[in-house]
Every structure is written in C-alpha cells, then in structure tokens.
Fold:
Amino acid sequence: MFFDYIKRNSRKVRKENGVYFASLVISIVAFYVILSLGEQDVIVYLKTVESNAVERLLLMIPILYAVSLFFVFFLVYFANRYQLQQRSHEFGMYLMMGMKQSKLFVMIMGETLWNGLVALCIGVPISLFLTELISLATSRLIGMGIIGHEFRISWVGLGLTVFGFIVVQLLAVFILSFRMSRKEPIDLLNDQKEKSQRVLSPVWSMVSILSGAVLLLGAIFLCVAYGLAVLYLRSLDYRIFALILIIGICGTFILFRGLGSLIGAWVKRKSSSSTGLFVFTARQLQENVLHQWGSLAISSLLILMAMVCFAFGTSTALNNSATSSRTVDFTFKGTEEEIISALTSDKLTPYVNSYNVMELGNFSPIDSETSENTAARTWSGLEEAISKEKDSEEKENLLRNLSMNDSPYFISLSSYNTILTSINKASIILEDDEVAMYSDEEYSYSYDILRTALQNNPTISIGEKQYELMSTLYTSNVVADRAITLSYALIVPDAIYDSFIGRSQDPWLWNMTLNAEFIEEKGLMQAMYEVDQLMNTSGLEYESYLSSMGRQLFYTVAGSYTTFYLGIMFLIIANTVLGINFLMQQRSTRHRYSTVAMLGANIESLCSSARKQIWLYFGLVISVSLVSSVFGIWSLLTAFPSTTLSIENSMVVAIILIVFIVFELCYIWMIQRKSDEEIKKLKEIE
Structure:
C-alpha cells in the first residue's frame, strides 16, 4: 500500500517536473557515453596503434566523471529544493493527519529512488544506442568506414553510471528531505505563503540608483575582455588568459547586476503608450533580473562555456576529419635485397600491387669551399620573390625555414612521378633547366605564400647553374606516413639527381601499394590492418598509412568527444537552473497573477504574459552568451589551426547550430508549458 502510494507520487512528480526529469535522463546518457569510451570500436582499434596516447586519454575519464558528478549533484539539489518547497503544504497535511516524520522521510527518499530507477530504465537503452551511433559516426567522419563492428556493453561504465547517479540523487535529496522532515506541521503549512517583498535598505537603494552606471561598467569590462581576447589570446600566454577570464567573468556579473535598471527605464518610456499586460510582463521580468542576477550570470557563463566547447570540438573534428593524403600504403627502410625478398614472398605477393624505390637525398656541393652559404645561394631567387609578398607571420616563418634549410633534399623526378601515377594524378614534365618545389603537408601554413611566389617562376641555384621553378607546388607525401618529413625540397630531373646524388647515397626508402581488388573487398582500413599483421613477423623496419589514420582518429576522439561531453553538461545545467529559477520566482509571486485575474485579465492573457517573460528571460542570458562566444570562439580558432571551410564542413557546423537552437527551444517550450499549468490553477479563484 505504502509502496503504491510512493509510485503514484513519483508519477505525479515526473509529470509536473518534466524539465528536471528530462535533464536527469540526459545526464545518465552523458555519464555512460563518456564512461564506455574505452569499450568503443574506435578506442579498441586505437589501442593497437596509439596505445600510449589512448592510455593517457582514458586516465582523464575518471576526472571528467568526478566533475560531472559534482555538477549533477548541485543540479539535483537545486531542482529538488524547488520540488519539495512546492509540496511543503502537502507534507504538512501528512504530518497533521498522523504520519510520522520518519515515515515522511522514507517516503521522500523512496520517491527519489523510484524516479531514479525510471530515469535509468529510459536513459540506459538510449545510452547503448547512442554509443553505437557515435562509434560508427566517428569512423565515418574520418573516412574510414566500419572496421569489423562489434556490439559491446561496458559493464564497468554501466555500473559506475548507475552507482554514481543513484548516490548523487540520494545524497542531495537526503540533505533536503532530512531538513524537511524535521519541520513542524505548522511550519510546512506556512512554508508556501508568499513572502512579502523585501524593502531595500538605504545602501541598496543607492546601489539601485547607480545600476545604470553598473551596467555601463559591466559592458566596459566585457569590451576590454573581448579586445584582449582578439588581440592577445592567440599568444597562448596563461597570464593573458587568466586576465581575460577574470575581466570577462566580472564583467558578466556586473552587467547582469545593472541590467534591471535598463529594463526599468525601457518600461517607463513605453508604459504611457502600452496596452494590455505590457507593464505587468515587463515588471515581472525586471524583478526576475534584479533578484536573480547572480544565477543569470552563472547560467550565461555556462552557456558560453558550452558554445566554446562545441566550437572547439567541431573545429578539432573537422581539422582532423581528413588524414594526410594517401599516396602509398607502406614505406620500408632497408637494403634492396631484403625488401624485395620480403615483398615477393608467397606470404605477401597476393596483397602487393606495386613497389618501387623512393630516390631522394641531400644536396651538398662536393667542393668544401663552395659549401658555405649553400642555402642562401640555393634559395636566393625564391627568397627574393617571397620577400615581395605582404608582411605576415607566415612569411617570416617561411623565410626563416628556408634560410635554415642549408642542405635541401633532391627528389628524383621518376620516383615522384611513380607516386603521382599511383594516385591518378598527372606526371610532372620538366625541362633540362627546370625544377619543381615540394613541401610536406605539415607545413601547409606556407602554401598560399609559396604558390603566389611560384607564379613568377623564380630561379634557384644548383651548383653553378640557374634553374627555373615551376609555378606548381607539389604536396603529395613521398612516404606512407612519417618515415621522412621534408619541409621544403626540390623535384629534379633524373640527370640532375644522378649528377649530384647518384650512387653516393644508396636508396634506403621503398614504397608499396596494396592490391586495389583486395582493398575494395575488405575496405582500406581492414585491408591495411590485415597486411600490417603479416608485416609484423617479417622483421622489416616499416611504417604504414594505418598509423596516420589512427593518429588522426585519436585527435578527433580526444579533442571532440570530451569537449562535446562537457558542452552538453554545461548546457543542461545552465538551462535547468534558468527554468527552475523562473518557475520558483513565478510561484513566489502568484498572488500578483491572482490580483490581475480578479481585475479582469483572463487566463489566456496571463499565460501569454508568462510565455513572453520566459522568452525574454532566456533571451537575455543567451544573447549575452552569444555575443561573448563570437569573440571567444574567434580567438580560440585563431589561436589554434583554423578549420578549412568547405561545403561539407559548413553543413556540419550548421547541423550543430541547429541542434543547439532546437535544444534551447525545447527547454523554453517545457518551461512555458509548466508555467501555463501553474497559471491555469488560478481558475479555482474565479
């Protein structure tokens, strides 16, 4: 009987507090998603490629879990305080009718536990489904497809999700219900009486008069923070970052502290020409802002943090969504005899499409007297062309790197053409007095300047002769991954290569590509993984394109996964605090709605007034966050490598923005619905 009563009350609580219950379900999903990271396909695979980095990432999970528990505890505490205050008259009646305080305590704890179990029953299946989608989407985002996908359940993650969620709920409600059950019936019955409006002291009256100045001061603080972020954040100086953080936070709090005066001035100006419930709506909003400016500022900062997390996560995912251009599948180091012997063995022959030597070597003059200032003489024409470009940090870095490249590498034209042919690109045709420029993709910051300079076909010196540079910059990788990284090199005709390099440097790099039919059958990643396992037993020193793919996938997971998780947690807490604050303030001033109703306003107009208040209430907080996020996100993305804009990337950003807007609209709609229900109870007085 008592248990049935608990279930009925729990159902009523869920119905009346849908916003809070939905937040609990989302928190459960977020808990499991982050705790099950180690069991997802992408991480299981990455352990075979980047094991040390993955282990360090997984060590961060308990920290994220603890931080999340901390946030969820205060979310549960704050929300349940509102719920218990709302039911204080009901609890007082229970005690008046003879219920013991201990039984009231057990009833409240039982309702909390039952609602927690219901939330788990809803949240866990969603979590399992979502983790599968994330695992597949992460691989798809980086262009790898599905690698032998296998459904997995992280039992440790599931256990910690259930344990942490239940403990946090019970602990928060234990504190609240213990206090509630210790009260006398008369205190509970009077707890719902509306408190009279506080009379401001002379000091606070003077502060209110000066609110306009406070608003201006807050705006100035924020503008200073924005300016510092735009000008200096890219330097990544922790002192500048701390200064921006302090000024920005102080500016946000001061701004919301003075915002009430702006609303008051706006109401005074509009009141003479207003109709309907305009003044009532505006004054209610003004009082919300005046009494809750601290929580509004905190919610605004949390939404700002969520936006920055989403922006950084999206940027990281898009920056690393494309691995370095695939040119060859494997690169070997060793002698010609041992490499050819291994690649032509019965074990590897079915998988090999082609293999060839990668001829490259250092250019150094034979005469020691002419070896001085080699770099200056070699790159002098190119440096002169670059010097004519617009001054920039990229230009300075490029000139410095060229001046330090005192022994430039030569790449044989025939070897590089073999690579271009394998990826279906046109071969390079060079005249006897012509060479081409090569740069590794890791130095992409200089591509624009180099391409512009090369349009003028500058000349360079090799030995005693002058050679003209082609207008095209070549960037296709000469190896599978990082066997060698050439900042800047020259692709030269074979005759020049033989003349300066020739047999003085034996070939030490060999490239191999896999059979196209085998790749089509297995998929690129699975095919390379299979061959990689065979190579492990060959005794050869080698690298594969698989390493590049795994590294980029790790960056995507580590950078975007965790920031999206934190962004979601910040967004949930900020919106829930905003919604519950509004409902609590509306409940404490419900006598005003009753008075306006008795003066002739109908319920529909009161509901419309409350809905407008909610739009403006959320809008003030979100608008301040949006303005701050424009500068914060811009500074963040300029401090780190910027995302290449493309139609696909723009669509991803647009989808995330749409999801954010839909999320906010859903929260606003749920608060408006709850507000309407509270106002419609006023029909009882008619």
Notes: The longest strand covers residues 465-474. The radius of gyration is 33 Å. DSSP finds 25 helices and ten strands in the chain. Strands lie at 330-333, 352-357, 360-362, 409-412, 434-439, 459-462, 465-474, 488-492, 509-514, 541-544.
